[in-house]
Design brief:
Elements (H helix, E strand, L loop, with lengths): L1 E5 L3 H12 L4 E5 L10 H4 L9 E4 L9 E4 L1 H12 L7 H30 L6 H22 L12 H15 L8 H11 L2 H8 L7 H4 L7 H8 L1 H8 L2
Parallel strand pairs: 1-2
Antiparallel strand pairs: 1-3, 3-4
Helix pairs in contact: 1-3, 1-6, 1-8, 4-5, 4-6, 5-7, 10-11
Length: 241
């Protein structure tokens, strides 16, 4: 059994997809990040950074104590190595997969997150930040498009954890009205992955679906929600670790 500490963001969805792909026995432990569920001392013992997702593997390969893993890229790699799937064991194929996985967690994910923050949550008057991050996201999407013009999947010919890392962010953007019309290679890739049974299961499970406030184009947070997400409560949680 694997405990999936989960919020219905693209980072959480990528782990749910992987768990479905490998047929893992898992249970979802949901968190409402706007309510600050992730800021408790109890969760801080699982992830000192107080961010989601995280997993606790209660049946690790070595049959020892439960293994805790946080950060979505690390979780994907851990599950791939445990299951022996979706990450080549060695050579150029492994290097390509890890390169594109790191591209997502170090580039596409953070830049998309910043663009989303200034577009969806920040007060008016953020024109420079909006332009800065949307231009960088567009540049990164161009990198992805050029890659997918050459390969069926981002790491090469085979579907991998790199695709799982990238796909939910594109799905989230699609839900918010940011289409794929100008990215034909990406659209084909997006549809190939959406048709996978494991992806369909992960995206349709009721306990994995995002509430409306997670996907709206513009959001207005109350004072406590802002504090939990971006303010004093968010900072105070790590000071107590």
């Amino acid at each position: 059994m694997i405990d999936l500490h989960y919020s219905a963001t693209p980072n959480g969805q990528k782990i749910a997809i992987m768990l479905e792909e490998i047929g893992a026995d898992y249970r979802v432990i949901p968190y409402d990040i706007f309510n600050g569920d992730q800021l408790t001392a109890e969760f801080g013992r699982i992830n000192p950074n107080h961010k989601l997702p995280a997993i606790v593997d209660r049946a690790p390969v070595e049959d020892g104590d439960p293994v805790t893993v946080f950060e979505s890229g690390a979780i994907l790699q851990y599950l791939a190595e445990k299951s022996g799937r979706f990450l080549p064991a060695a050579g150029a194929a492994r290097a390509s997969t890890l390169s594109w996985l790191t591209w997502q967690v170090a580039g596409m994910g953070p830049m998309g997150g910043q663009a989303s923050h200034f577009l969806r949550y920040a007060p008016p008057g953020q024109d420079y930040a909006i332009e800065r991050y949307t231009r960088e996201v567009t540049r990164l999407l161009t990198v992805l498009e050029r890659r997918l013009e050459k390969c069926a999947y981002v790491a090469g010919d085979d579907y991998s954890i790199a695709d799982m890392a990238i796909w939910p962010g594109r799905a989230s953007a699609f839900v918010m009205g940011l289409g794929l019309d100008e990215w034909p290679a990406m659209r084909g890739w997006f549809e190939r992955i959406r048709e996978r049974p494991a992806v369909a299961r992960a995206m349709s499970r009721e306990d994995l679906k995002p509430p409306a406030k997670y996907v709206g184009r513009h959001q207005k947070l109350d004072e406590q929600e802002w504090s939990n997400m971006f303010g004093e409560a968010n900072r105070a949680a790590v000071q107590g670790n």
